[in-house]
Specification:
The protein is an alpha/beta fold. The protein has a single domain, classed as Dihydrofolate Reductase, subunit A (3-Layer(aba) Sandwich), CATH 3.40.430.10. Helices cover 28% and strands 30% of the residues. The protein has five helices and ten strands. The protein has helices spanning 30-41, 50-56, 70-81, 105-115, 125-133; strands spanning 2-10, 15-17, 43-49, 84-87, 98-101, 118-123, 139-144, 153-154, 164-171, 177-183. Helix 1 runs parallel beside helix 3. The longest helix is centred in the N-terminal third of the chain and has 12 residues, at 30-41. It starts with a strand and ends with a strand. Pfam families: RibD_C. It comes from Mesorhizobium cantuariense.
């Protein structure tokens, strides 16, 4: 059975993007990037909404294989090799190694959870809120940067009420603290 993990970089005040929609968080440097590379290599499937998918399409470019640093090239390879399911009512097509779901995300995720083994990474606050309300998320990972954005897109959607139990904390490069939680019930 799949383990669905909602995993995002956040500011100390809990935002995944600033008020203007820009990420506003420091770009991961090599050591922190390697942490995300390792997680992507362990991932069976990525679940994402349209906005997150469009942002991550950057990694689909073959240019990512020849430019930048080795750690970035490594992530690009892992991203392209990992199957993705994109939930969107507006997209008409998706790229390499991705499948588009237009309707009933909850049914699709319930089926996936029963059919797939291993780690399923979930990205995107709106999709995460929908899955959280349906009790489909097994773990929450908040990668907290020592930055305050002062507003924007929150990690937890407004109005979402959850009781969580701590699974642990870890200090990472660039002053990032990984906080891990699971649903309490």
């Amino acid at each position: 059975m799949a383990k669905i993990v909602y995993s995002m970089l956040t500011s100390l005040d809990g935002y995944i993007a600033g008020q203007d929609g820009d990420i506003g968080l420091p770009v991961p440097e090599a050591e922190l990037h390697q942490h995300f590379n390792d997680m992507m290599k362990q991932t069976s499937v990525v679940l994402t909404g349209r906005r997150m998918y469009e942002m991550m399409r950057f990694w689909d470019s073959p240019d990512r294989e020849t430019g930048a640093t080795e750690v970035e090239r490594d992530f690009a390879r892992a991203w392209r090799e990992t199957p993705k399911i994109v939930f969107s009512t507006t997209l008409r097509q998706v790229g390499h190694n991705a499948r588009l779901v237009h309707d009933d995300a909850l049914t699709a995720v319930r089926s996936l959870k029963a059919e797939v083994d291993g780690l399923v990474i979930l990205g995107g606050a709106d999709l995460a809120a929908s899955l959280a309300r349906a009790a489909l998320i097994d773990e929450y990972r908040l990668y907290m940067h020592p930055v305050v954005l002062g507003g924007g897109k929150p990690y937890f959607q407004s109005g979402l009420s959850l009781t969580l139990k701590p699974l642990g904390a870890e200090s990472l490069a660039q002053g990032v603290t990984l906080l891990r939680y699971a649903p309490a019930n």
